[in-house]
Amino acid sequence: MKRIGRLGLMISSVMLYLLSSSSLSAQDVLSKGAEQQLFNNACRTCHSTQKDDNRLGPNLHQIIGRKAGSLPEYNYSAAMRDSDFIWDEAKLARFIANPDEVVPGNKMAPYGGLASVEDRTKIVLFLQSMRSQ
Q1: Segment 113-118 long-range contacts (CB within 8 Å, at least 24 positions apart)
Q2: CA pair distance 49, 6, nearest whole angstrom
Q3: How many Cα atoms sit within 13 Å of 114 on the Cβ side?
Q4: Are 117 and 38 spatial neighbours (Cβ–Cβ below 8 Å)?
Q5: What is the Cα–Cα distance from 2 to 21, expressed in whole angstroms?
Q6: How many CA atoms lie within 13 A of 1 on its CB side?
Q7: What's the whole-number mean pLDDT along residues 98-109?
Q8: % pLDDT > 90, the chain
Q9: 67: DSSP letter
Q10: Cα 89 from chain centroid (whole Å)
Q11: What is the pLDDT of residue 131?
């Protein structure tokens, strides 16, 4: 039998604790981890999910339900500031696919969009899961 390193043992312990102390299934925990990994790979270089943690891009804390271009502490492009919509799941998925199609003149360059519908869906699900945090 292979030896499990300390980190592997710690991760296993944390997952067991989460599963035993909540109504989450193993699939829920693994799914959220995959969704977060996709967010980290595609978005985290420029965006955070922490309130008031603006980076190259604005924070995405509770973005669903927020008016586009509305964080007072972030310097949005004029196009994003002047856009007149509320972020919902569908609009966010379209924006992740092709930002220039949804808001021409935004400051998302060099990001050109994410082609995979499945990956976009997982990122939106991850951002939805962050709404209550």
Answers
A1: 114/42
A2: 29
A3: 19
A4: no
A5: 28
A6: 3
A7: 96
A8: 70
A9: B
A10: 11
A11: 76
Indicate if the pLDDT at residue 65 is higher than 60. Answer: yes
Contact between 58 and 68 under an 8 Å Cβ cutoff? The reply is no
- Residue 68 and residue 86 in contact, taking contact as beta carbons nearer than 8 Å: yes
Amino acid at 63: I
Is the separation of the CB atoms in 74 and 54 below 8 Å? Answer: yes
Per-residue pLDDT band for 31 (boundaries 50, 70, 90) equals: low
Residue 123 contacts residue 42 (beta carbons within 8 Å): yes
Residue 44 and residue 83: Cα distance in Å, rounded? 23
Average pLDDT of the chain is 83
**Segments in the chain forming alpha helices (H):** 6-20, 26-42, 78-82, 89-97, 99-102, 117-129
Of residues 86 and 112, more confidence is placed in 86
Partners of 67 in the β-ladder: 86
> Which residues contact residue 15 at a Cβ distance below 8 angstroms, ignoring those fewer than 6 apart?
26, 29
Q: How far apart are CA 126 and CA 47, in angstroms?
A: 13
Q: Note whether 131 and 66 are within 8 A (CB).
A: no
